[in-house]
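Deliverable D5.2: sample structural annotation.
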Amino acid sequence: MWVMGGLVLGALALASGVAAADDFKLSSNQRISCGRGLSAGKLSTATCRSYAYLFNIRTSEYFRCSVSLALTRDAKEIISVQTDGGCVKRPRVFETDGNYSFDATETEPPNTNSFFGTGGYAVWASDNAAQKVRGCIIIASGLGSDVSKCMDMKFE
């Protein structure tokens, strides 16, 4: 009887772990940007960075994940390859738990039209059970903290 009870509790724990894992969805709008530069001694470096978002469809919390690779070479060989990456937890999009959908996109790489440089992104989330959509824009201010504003969409 004790063994059967342990098996039932183990199965319930496993099932609840699977259900919790199902609360996270990866956004489908990943981007990659690469740049090249020349260094002293005819070395060239190519750096690529990509972002993705992992979204909790129940709580509307999300993680902004990035991965980067820098490759340095000369005319004959690869001198070094460096990688970095990780995920940073961001605040909830909606205040209450529910059943939400999510997507996000990064800003274009720095150019003449970009006054704030890299680090900006847009987040869109919607309630799967109601006509409710929230759009957020987050940009690096260049003064320490990001500026983040969200707005509920009006349907006309």
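Annotation notes: Residues 1-19 have pLDDT under 50 and may be disordered. The beta strands are 24-26, 31-39, 43-56, 62-73, 78-90, 100-106, 121-127, 133-140, 146-152.
The annotation will be released with the project's public dataset once the embargo ends.
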